[in-house]
C-alpha cells in the first residue's frame, strides 16, 4: 500500500436540526440539476486530464430508467471520477456536512446533490433517493458509506443501499474505482492514473419493508461485486 496523506478526522454527527435540510430535499425531489451541472463538467476537465481518467464498460450503465451506482470510496474526488465520463446526469447522496455556507449549498443543490445525515437514520435522504429513482434518475450511493481511510475496500457494506435496491427495484451497477486512494496526495504533487469500471447491473425483486438482515445481504452482495472488479483492475 503506498504512503497516503492523512485524512481529517471524520465527523459523523451534524449538530444542525433535521429540518435545516428540508429545503434541499424538496428541491432534489421536485427539480433536477440545472445549468450548474454542465458547467461543473466543463470546469472539471483539468481533473480528468490530471488523473488520466479512464472509464471501462460504460455501456453497462443503462441509457434510461432508474439506476443505482454503487462505487467504492477512497477520495473526495470520487464524485467526479464516477460521473464525469457518463452521458447521464447523476445525483449524489452527499454527507450533510458538505452543505455548509451559501456557496457550497447553492452549488451542491443546483448540481442535483442531496444531503444525508450520517450516523442517524435519515429517512428523508432515503425518500429523496426513492423519489429520484421513481422519476427515472441515477443515484450514486457509496456501498460502504464514508471514505476508506486505509485505501482498501472493507468487508461490510452499509445496509441502506440494500434497502434502496429492494424497495425500488432499481438495478444496481457496481462501480470499482482504481487509483483514487492516492488522489489525496495531490499536495505532494501526486496525480495517479484513475480507472473507473462499471459492472453489469444487478437486479433484485421488489420487497416492501425488507428485513434489515435482507437489506444487509443485498448490500454485501453488491460490495462483493465491487471488490471483485477492483481486484481484477489491480491485476491487469
What does this structure look like?
This protein has eight helices and seven strands. By secondary structure, the chain is of the alpha/beta class. It has one domain: Glycerol-3-phosphate (1)-acyltransferase, CATH 3.40.1130.10. The mean pLDDT is 91. Helix 1 runs parallel beside helix 6, helix 6 packs parallel to helix 7 and helix 7 packs across helix 8. Strand 3, helix 5 and strand 4 form a beta-alpha-beta unit. Strands 1-7-6-2-5-3-4 form a seven-stranded mixed beta sheet. The chain starts with 21 loop residues before the first helix and ends with a helix.
Task: Describe the structure concisely.
With 236 residues, the chain is an alpha/beta fold. It has helices at 22-30, 36-43, 45-50, 78-83, 102-110, 123-134, 160-168, 212-235, and strands spanning 54-56, 67-71, 90-95, 114-116, 138-140, 172-178, 195-198. The protein starts with 21 loop residues before the first helix and ends with a helix.
Please state the second-level CATH architecture.
3-Layer(aba) Sandwich
pLDDT < 50 stretches? none
- Our Rg estimate from Cα atoms comes to 17 Å
Write the CATH homologous superfamily. Glycerol-3-phosphate (1)-acyltransferase
Helical proportion, percent range: 25-40%
| Main beta-sheet annotation | 7 strands, mixed
CATH class: Alpha Beta
Main sheet strand line-up:
1-7-6-2-5-3-4
Backbone structural class = alpha/beta
Count the helices. How many? 8
> Which percent range describes the beta-strand content?
5-15%
Question: Mean pLDDT, rounded to whole units?
Answer: 91
Distance between the termini: 17 Å
Number of β-strand runs: 7
Summarize the helix and strand pattern as letters.
HHHEEHEHEHEHEEH
Indicate the overall shape. globular
Oligomer: single chain
Tally of individual domains: 1
Amino acid at each position: 500500500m503506498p504512503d497516503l496523506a492523512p485524512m481529517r478526522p471524520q465527523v459523523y454527527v451534524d449538530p444542525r436540526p433535521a429540518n435545516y435540510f428540508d429545503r434541499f430535499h424538496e428541491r432534489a425531489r421536485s427539480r433536477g440539476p440545472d445549468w450548474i451541472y454542465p458547467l461543473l463538467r466543463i470546469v472539471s476537465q483539468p481533473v480528468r486530464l490530471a488523473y488520466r481518467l479512464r472509464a471501462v464498460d460504460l455501456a453497462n450503465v443503462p441509457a434510461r430508467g432508474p439506476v443505482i451506482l454503487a462505487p467504492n470510496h477512497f477520495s473526495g474526488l470520487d464524485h467526479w471520477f464516477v460521473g464525469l465520463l457518463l452521458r447521464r446526469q447523476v445525483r449524489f447522496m452527499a454527507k450533510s456536512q458538505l452543505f455548509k455556507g451559501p456557496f457550497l449549498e447553492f452549488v451542491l443543490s443546483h448540481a442535483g446533490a442531496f444531503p444525508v445525515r450520517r450516523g442517524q437514520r435519515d429517512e428523508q435522504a432515503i425518500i429523496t433517493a426513492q423519489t429520484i429513482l421513481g422519476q427515472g434518475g441515477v443515484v450514486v450511493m457509496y456501498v460502504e458509506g464514508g471514505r476508506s481511510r486505509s485505501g482498501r475496500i472493507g468487508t461490510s457494506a452499509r445496509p441502506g443501499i440494500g434497502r434502496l435496491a429492494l424497495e425500488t427495484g432499481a438495478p444496481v451497477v457496481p462501480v470499482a474505482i482504481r487509483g483514487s486512494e492516492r488522489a489525496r496526495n495531490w499536495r505532494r504533487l501526486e496525480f495517479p492514473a484513475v480507472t473507473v469500471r462499471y459492472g453489469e447491473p444487478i437486479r433484485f425483486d421488489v420487497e416492501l419493508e425488507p428485513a434489515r438482515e435482507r437489506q444487509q445481504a443485498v448490500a454485501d452482495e453488491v460490495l462483493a461485486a465491487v471488490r471483485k472488479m477492483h481486484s481484477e483492475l489491480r491485476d491487469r
